[in-house]
Write a structure and sequence with these properties.
It is globular, with a radius of gyration of 14 Å. It is an alpha+beta fold.
């Protein structure tokens, strides 16, 4: 199986593991977001934090926006959670963010349990075999 942006996604997940390894579980999502931003800076991972992205419908730009936690390498949505268990609504959110933002990949990261959880979702509407 080809993983879109394999090297960058491994670096992102490694940064998340470092944050979880130091902080553990039990903080709010915002604390993990702040710490992950520090890790991205220290590791030289290109990112945008909380960019506003307009949704589209039938090729019409909508007034509605969504704000992913990070976009890395201009290709990867990184969506953070701090919940006991991920559920399908979290997965759908990450997948839809990648689709609407026309990103190649979404990575959903959950800091809310004793072990870090992460899932990768390629944008099936794009060719992600780069």
């Amino acid at each position: 199986m080809n993983i879109a942006h394999k090297e960058t996604s491994y670096r992102i997940i490694g940064a998340a593991m470092a944050v979880h390894g130091e902080l553990g579980c039990g903080f709010t999502e915002k604390v993990y977001q702040d710490a992950l931003e520090v890790e991205f800076q220290e590791r030289g991972i290109e990112y945008q934090r909380e960019p506003q992205i307009h949704a589209t419908y039938h090729n019409n730009l909508l007034d509605s926006t969504f704000i992913p936690d990070f976009i890395c390498d201009n290709a990867i949505i990184v969506e953070l959670k701090a919940v006991k268990d991920l559920d399908n609504i979290h997965r759908s959110q990450a997948i839809n963010y990648a689709k609407i933002a026309k990103m190649d990949l979404a990575i959903l990261v959950n800091f809310g349990d004793t072990s870090l959880e992460y899932e990768r979702f390629p944008n099936l509407n794009k060719d992600t075999t780069k």
